[in-house]
Amino acid sequence: MPKVTVARVARANKRDEATTSTVFTFGGTDTPAWIKHSSTIPELKTNRGDIFVLPALFLAMRRGEDLELSDAVSAELIDNIDTVQDIYVTWFPEVFTKVTVSAPASQRNRALRSARGGSGMAFTGGIDSMFSLITSRTTPTALVNSTGLDLDLARDAVARETRARLGRIAAVTGTSVVPLSTNLRKIVLANDIRWGEHSFAAVIASFGHLLAGTMDTFVIPASHSYLTAIPWGSNPLVDPLYGSDRLRVVHHGAAFNRARKTEAIAHHELTRTEMRVCLKITTDENCGECRKCLRTMLALDVMGALSNSERFPQTLDFALLKKLPAHHPQEITMMHDVRELAVEHGAAQRYLDAIDDLCIQWRNELDGVSLESAPDQDPGGTASRIRAQDP
After folding, report:
1. Considering only CA atoms, which of 55, 41, 42 is closest in space to residue 6?
2. Burial of 336: CB neighbours in 10 Å, binned 0-12, 13-18, 19+
């Protein structure tokens, strides 16, 4: 019977940089998978299968082939994977098939979670992660950011700009930045697995497992609220199941929708000077023209915060807003949330009219389109075009 296999995890050190890697074998081909990171990150000595098991799981489920790992996987994570599969097969029965996952035996040891005490947060400096950083009860010890996800591996200059911006955020908040790079997103996309809808939290959680020698908690900022949670690649039902005996994975911020998150941080200095939400990959700046920029600008403007922003054009272009095409049914819900903000903050009628007209336009464009059949957030690769990670 065909199967997906994951070779032993290897580590290669080269000066200040190290590469942790494995090989996914399926369909008669070998596909190298890797995460590059600082050589100061300690190497895991046990249960190294934790690092790559989650993206490999999605490959196996998509192919309907059993998954076999050469390295041990934490007992708790193995247990959780069974439930993860049940959820995704229920959500996407035409996409995923439940498979058997086998790995060398691992001893259960939850005491490992208290051995380090550090915490990490997946961080881009967008609304979700900025909200989680600003409102979290405790500041994470590390902000984890990877090229190859939001940032294209081929765009070194943009990556440097982004890392500089994240460094400024870390300096203000008293934390640090852990820069990574990976080809895991490229692998899942190449195998007909959607990024936003299916797999992005699984890949992000892999970073937490890589760093489990320095932290016992890893935070994934929520994409949606509990009220509007939909089958998605990051979800309050699934993300905590990506944890292990030594790493707790926390889904943070789902009590707030995107508009309410924007409201909570609108007047914070970091929002004014450092936030980036843009879909374009050619610069670390906000373009002020894509759907995420315009929706964020609209929310900031109805609260009187746009005119003080250093990251966006300080005047909203209503003509550009009117031209926005429909992208996903969830966009209508998000725009209604912004409308609610506009009413509460006493925004002028033209804002309400613009939102109402846009929602009517989108409903017409999306007539008959379900959440499951809506165009994927990421229909191809990451180079030379607008990316779309989430609504």
Report:
1. 55
2. middle
**One domain for residues 168 and 87:** no
What is the total count of domains within the chain? Answer: 3
Tell whether 171 and 285 lie within a shared domain: no
Would residue 51 count as lying in a domain? yes
Handedness of CA 224, 228, 229, 231 (dihedral sign): negative
Res 150: pLDDT: 79
- Among 85, 102, 119, identify where a domain stops: 102
251-264: burial string, b at 16+ Cβ within 10 Å, e else: bbbbebbbbbbbbb
> Do 141 and 195 lie in a common domain?
yes
**pTM (global) more than 0.90:** yes
pLDDT of 357 strictly over 70: yes
| Residue pointed to by tokens 């490959």 | 59
Mean pLDDT computed over 268-283? 94
Report the C-alpha gap between 137 and 145 in whole angstroms.
21
Domain co-membership, 282 together with 319? yes
